[in-house]
Amino acid sequence: MSTRPCSRIACADQAVATLTFVYADSMAVLGPLSTSHEPHTYDLCERHARRTSAPQGWQVVRHKVMGEALWDGTLGR
Ligand SMILES: [Zn+2]
């Protein structure tokens, strides 16, 4: 199992989630860390995943991560 660092500048925390931008639908999808790195995806640590917000006009879709309470509805509301 490989781990990757958070993709935010100056953050060295371990990534726990992957943010994917779906340009066609103006959607930012935040889900479990993906196994492969693809274009338009950003790995985020827990702290940054919590603070993620979408650009204006976009909606953020959060997937539940098994056994974790990362997405407790405190974000973007
Ligand atoms: Zn981070």
Describe what you observe in this structure.
The protein is mainly beta and 77 residues long. It has a domain at 17-62. It contains 1 helix and 4 strands. Strand 1 and strand 2 form a beta hairpin. The relative contact order is 0.26. The structure holds zinc ion. Zinc ion binds at residues 6, 8, 11, 13, 44-45, 47-48.
Low-confidence stretches: 66-71, 73-77
Report how far apart the termini are: 34 Å
Query: How many H/I helices?
Result: 1
Average pLDDT confidence is 81
Overall 3D shape = globular
How do the strands of the widest beta sheet line up side by side?
3-1-2-4
Largest sheet: 4 strands, mixed
Small-molecule binders:
zinc ion
The number of distinct β-strands equals 4
Content of β-strand: 25-35%
Q: Which structural category do the helix and sheet elements fall into?
A: mainly beta
Radius of gyration using CA atoms only:
12 Å
* SSE string: EEEHE
User: Approximately how much helix is present in the residues?
Assistant: under 10%
Secondary-structure map with pairings?
Blueprint: E1 17-22, E2 27-32, E3 41-44, H1 46-51, E4 59-62
Parallel strand pairs: 2-4
Antiparallel strand pairs: 1-2, 1-3
This protein binds zinc ion (ZN).
Zinc ion (ZN) is lined by residues 6, 8, 11, 13, 44-45, 47-48.
